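In this section we walk through a basic example: taking a raw amino acid sequence and producing a predicted 3D structure, encoded as discrete structure tokens. The instruction is simple. Fold the sequence below.
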Amino acid sequence: MTSETKRFHCVSCGECCRYIDIIEGLKDLHINGVCKFLVDDKCSIYDKRPSLCRYDAVYEMFKDKISLKAYDEMVMHYCQQLQDLKKERIHQ
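The resulting token sequence is shown next.
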């Protein structure tokens, strides 16, 4: 990581694991779009999860193209969208 400070802190809700069928590198990990390792809204392989599931590892792939601040804001934006989808799903 750079000297910049990330602001995003995962709340461990599992929502990002519910839509992995749209991520090319994770397509073999899902059942009906949901990660097969998501158990009770938690990652059952957390310590051994793929790099594409790791905030820092993904940033390392793109750090030459995007600042940590911009990446952080993007992650927070999409996390909020996933939280909104969860609220909609619960209220249906």
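Looking at the output, two observations stand out. DSSP finds two helices and four strands in the chain. The radius of gyration is 14 Å. In the next section we compare this with other chains.
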